[in-house]
Amino acid sequence: MTDEKLKQEQADEEMINQAFQHLLESYLTSKHRRKVEIITKAFNFAKQAHKGVKRRSGEPYIMHPIAVAQIACSEIGLGSTSICAALLHDVVEDTDYTVEDIENLFGPKVAQIVDGLTKISGGIFGDRASAQAENFKKLLLTMNDDIRVILIKIADRLHNMRTLGSMLPNKQYKIAGETLYIYAPIANRLGLNKIKTELEDLSFKYEHPEEYAQIESLLKETKEEREELFREFTAPIREKLDKMGIKYRILARVKSPYSIWNKMQTKHIPFEEIYDILAVRIIFEPSDLEEESNECFGIYVSISKIYKPHPDRLRDWVNHPKSNGYQALHVTLMSNKGQWIEVQIRSERMNDIAEQGFAAHWKYKDGPTQEDEGELEKWLRTIKEILDDPQPDAMDFLDTIKLNLFASEIFIFTPKGEIKTMPQNCTALDFAFSIHTFLGSHCIGAKVNHKLVPLSHKLQSGDQVEILTSKSQRVQPSWINFATTAKAKAKIAGILKREQRAMVQTGEDKLQEFFQNEEVEWNDENIQKLCDLHELATPEELFAALGFKTILLGEADRNELKKDKPATGSGWKKFIPLPFIGGKANKEKKEPRQKAPKQKIDSKKVLKLTPDAFQKNYIIADCCKPIPGDDVLGYIDDQDRIVIHKRKCPLADKLKAGFGNRILAVEWETGKALEFPVNLYIQGIDTLGILHQIGDIISEQLNVYIRKIFIETIDGLFEGHIQLYVHDVEDVNVIIANLQKMEEMKKVVRVEQFEDKP
Ligand code: MN
C-alpha cells in the first residue's frame, strides 16, 4: 500500500468515527432509553459489511447509513431500533448478508424493518406503469406493517437528495421527480413538515436550477425589508406577551423557494405579488399542559387587540388537529403597513409535532398510545382499503393515492354535530363514502346546511351535511367524475367493475342463447363478426354491451352471422359508448402502430436538438408546448420517439417519476430556423383601437406572425389570448417586453393553452 493510500484510509477512518460519535451523542441527548451497545454493534457490522465500497462522491459507503441514522435520530426523533435498522438498511441489498443474519444478530424487529427497506430498495418506480404500481403498493404495505420502514426510507431519500449533486443528470431528474411525486407528499402526510419542505426545495433546485437561483436571490434582496417588517410588527406583540408573563419565542417563517415558485406558477403572478412570504410564529411554553389550548386563545385575544384580525382567516387546528397531527392556531392580522400577516400560535409541544410529525408524540409520553395513533391509523386503513380494491390502470392508481397525500383539510359536521375532517374540494358524494360504503353507494342527494344539493356539490369547511339515500339507488358510472377522494373513487370503480363482470357474464349467456337459436356455431370467428359489426374491440366488450343492453341482438346480427363474407363495417349500428367499456381501449387497438426507425438512444448523454434533427424523431409535447430556450427534457416513448416536454410540465413530472430511465437531458438550439407556436395571456384597460395597437406591435414592429387572437372586454377591462409563431424564448421575451410598454397593458404572460373563452 502506498503512503498516500494509507493516509487516505486513516483520514476516512477518522471521518467515519467522528460521524458515528456525533450520532451517539445526539441519541444520548434524546429521551429514548440508552441502548448504546446494540447501536454500536450495528455500526460495526455495517461498517465491516460495506468495507472498501465507495459512494459516487468518493466517500466511504458507510457514511451514507450513518447519515441516514443521524436523520432518523435527530430529525425524525426515532429510537434505537430504527437507528440500528437505518445503519443496516443497505446491508442486505448490497452485500451477501441475509435478513436471517440480521435477525440472528439484532433480533426480529430490526430484521423486519431491514427486510421492508430491502423490498422497496429499487425505488418506487420501474420502467413500466404496472411495475411501478406494484412497487408502490409494496411501499404502502410496508407502511402498514411498521411505520418505521417508511420513516427510515424518507431519511434515506433525504440524504440521497442532499448528496444528489454527484449523480448523473438523468439520474438526478429521476430521483428528484420521484421525490416530488411521492416522498414529499408522504412526508407531509406523516407530519414531517420540515423534511417535506427540504425535499421539495432540493427537488426544485435540481429540476429548475435557474428558477431556484433566481428565487433565492430575490429572497436575499428582500431580506432586510422583511426583517424590518418583522421587527416592527412583533415589537408590540412582545411587549404584550412579556406583560402577560408568558414564556415564548417569536420566529419569522419565510416561505420556501419551492412554495413561492409553485404559487408563481399556479397563479401566474410575479415574485413581487406574493404577499405571504413572511409569516410569524409564536411558540410558547404553557404554564401547565392542561392549559395549553386556553393559552393559545389567550394569546390570540391579546394580540388581536393590537392588530385587526381578518374575520375569515382564523384556523383552529388546536381543538381540531389535522390528520397528520398538526396543531396550531392560525390568525391573519393587518400590520401597520397595510399588509396581512399570518401569525401561527403554538406551544413547544405542538411545534415539535409540526416539525417531526407523530414521532414527536413519543417524546411526551412513555410510548405511542392508542389515542396518538388514531388519525394515522385511520389514514392507513383508508390506504389498505384502496389496496384491497385494485385499480385497473396503474397511473390512475398512483393519482388516486396521491389525492389523499396532498389534500388540505376542511371540517364537515354530521347532522348530530360530530366533526369529520375531509380533503378540500370534496363533494357530498365523497362525504357519503367516507362515512360508509353503503351510504355512498345508495346515496341520491344531500342536504347541506338544510338545503337540498346534488351529489356533486362541493363542500365548504363548516358545512353540516346530511346524506339522503334510497335502497333502489345504484352506483352510476358518471359518479367517478365528481368523486374526488381516493376512497370514494376506489369504491366506485370497484363496484362498477364487479357489476361489469356480472354484466359480461349475462351478455355472454345471452349471446350463447342467440347462437343456439340461430343454429350458429359458438366460435371465435363468429363472435368476432359481431364485434366488427358493432365496432367493438374485444369479445368482452361485446358481452358487456349486451349485458348492459346498450346493444340488442336482432336482424343485423342474424344477417352478419349467416353471410360468408366478412363485414364491411358500414350500416346498422346501435351502440352507445359506455364509460369503462368502449372508448379508449377500442381506439388504441384499431390504430395501426406507427413504426419509427429504431435508433440507439444513450440516456446517459445530454441530447442536443438541432433544427434538422427535428424532422426525424422528435415530438413537441402538446401539453406544455415547449420552444427552444425553455428548460426541457426528453422522454423516450414506446415507439422510440423522443417527446420534448418543459421540465416544469406536470406531465413531465409524472413521467420523470414513473419512467425515470427513459428521461433524457436535452439541450435545444434551433439557430432561428424553425418556428413554434406560443400562447400569451394579456390583460389591461380597454381603450379604442387596443386590438389594432397590439396587432401593430406584434406584426409590424416585430415582424411576427399572429395565428389567433381572442380578446374580450368587460367593464372597461380587456383580457384574452394571442397565439404567435416564434423561433425561441428570446423572441417571446422581446414581444412581452414590447407589449408591456403599452400604457394600457397590465399583464402579459406566456401560458400553455390558448383559450377562446374568458
Ligand atoms: Mn440507502
Can you describe this structure?
The protein has 758 residues and is an alpha+beta fold. The protein is 50% helix and 16% strand. It has a five-stranded mixed β-sheet. Strands 11-15-13-14-12 form a five-stranded mixed β-sheet. Strand 17 (705-714) and strand 18 form a beta hairpin. Helix 6 packs across helix 8 (147-162), helix 8 (147-162) runs parallel beside helix 10 (193-207) and helix 9 (169-189) packs across helix 27 (650-658). Bound molecules: manganese (II) ion. Manganese (II) ion (MN) is lined by residues 64, 89-90, 156.
Quick take:
With 758 residues, the protein is α+β, with helices and mostly antiparallel strands.
List the helices and strands and how they pair.
Elements: H1 3-29, H2 36-49, H3 63-75, H4 80-87, H5 91-94, H6 99-119, H7 129-145, H8 147-162, H9 169-189, H10 193-207, H11 209-221, H12 223-244, E1 247-254, H13 257-267, E2 278-285, H14 292-303, E3 309-316, E4 329-334, E5 340-347, H15 348-356, H16 361-364, H17 370-388, H18 394-406, E6 409-413, E7 419-423, H19 428-435, H20 437-441, E8 443-448, E9 451-453, E10 465-469, H21 486-518, H22 524-533, H23 539-547, H24 555-562, H25 584-590, E11 607-609, H26 611-617, E12 618-620, E13 632-636, E14 642-646, H27 650-658, E15 663-668, E16 676-685, H28 690-701, E17 705-714, E18 717-726, H29 729-740, E19 745-751
Parallel strand pairs: 2-5, 11-15, 12-14
Antiparallel strand pairs: 1-2, 3-4, 4-5, 6-7, 8-9, 8-10, 13-14, 13-15, 16-18, 16-19, 17-18
Helix pairs in contact: 1-3, 2-4, 3-4, 3-8, 4-6, 6-8, 7-8, 7-17, 7-18, 8-9, 8-10, 9-10, 9-27, 10-11, 11-13, 17-21, 18-21, 19-21, 21-23, 22-24
Manganese (II) ion binds near residues 89, 90 and 156.
